Amino acid sequence: MFTIAQLTEFVGWATVINVAYLALASLILIMMKGSISVMHSKLFDLDEKKIAPMYFSFISNYKVVTMAFFAAPYIALKIMGN
């Protein structure tokens, strides 16, 4: 069984990993949007104009999930640990 300290550490590192991935994915999409859009449009047979909203949806959904399932529980666990 996990102690609160172990669970806090686990969720904290999961938060760091998810936020780092979110930042990396956002930077890649900002810096390489053109080439990635072309690659995905060819790979998945999609119109390039429809891909930009899909990227935005992915980033926003990932951010909400990260905040709801990792950052918020981490903050709650830190408060409980004090």
What do you see in this structure?
- The protein has one domain.
- It contains three helices and no strands.
- The protein has helices at 4-31, 33-44, 48-81.
- The class by helix and strand makeup works out as mainly alpha
Estimate the helix proportion, in percent.
over 70%
| Strand composition percent | under 5%
Number of domains: 1
H/E series, N to C? HHH
Q: What is the C-alpha radius of gyration, as a whole number of Å?
A: 17 Å
Largest sheet: none
Key traits:
elongated; 3 helices; 82 residues; mainly alpha; single chain
Offer a concise description of the structure:
The chain has 82 residues and is mainly α. It is built from 3 helices and no strands.
Task: Give the SSE layout.
Blueprint: H1 4-31, H2 33-44, H3 48-81
Helix pairs in contact: 1-3
